[in-house]
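Researcher: Quick test of sequence recovery. Tokens follow.
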């Protein structure tokens, strides 16, 4: 069992940065791949970024490539999402997720791949 709690959301202007964190409980955190998704009002939950359990493999949605960076600290049971050059279209609730494996192809972009979810943190970017 893994429990996930996100923090770091807020309201910023376009072009600014935010760093989201996800704290995980459970001794097996280091064995889970971790990911970030986001959901805007009235829209589906979309994949943002993912990182393997060792941190050696990362994946990003095309919309955030070059602007967002996912990282993890297994000693502290945390995963972070550094978001730079934020745009109004990045406005959403950001959710942390955990799974046993990122899988092959683009399975990590599918909601059903992920076992555990946090409650989310709101990010609002004004123009």
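Model:
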């Amino acid at each position: 069992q893994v429990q996930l709690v996100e923090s770091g959301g807020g309201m910023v202007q376009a072009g600014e940065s935010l760093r989201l964190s996800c704290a995980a409980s459970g001794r097996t955190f280091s064995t889970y791949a971790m990911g970030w998704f986001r959901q805007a009002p009235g829209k589906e939950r979309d994949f943002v970024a993912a990182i393997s359990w060792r941190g050696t493999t990362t994946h990003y949605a095309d919309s955030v490539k070059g602007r967002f960076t996912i990282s993890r600290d297994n000693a502290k049971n945390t995963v972070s999402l550094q978001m730079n050059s934020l745009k109004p279209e990045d406005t959403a609730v950001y959710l942390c997720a955990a799974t046993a494996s990122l899988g092959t192809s683009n399975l990590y972009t599918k909601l059903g791949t992920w076992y555990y979810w946090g409650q989310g943190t709101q990010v609002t970017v004004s123009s």
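The two ends are 40 Å apart (CA to CA).
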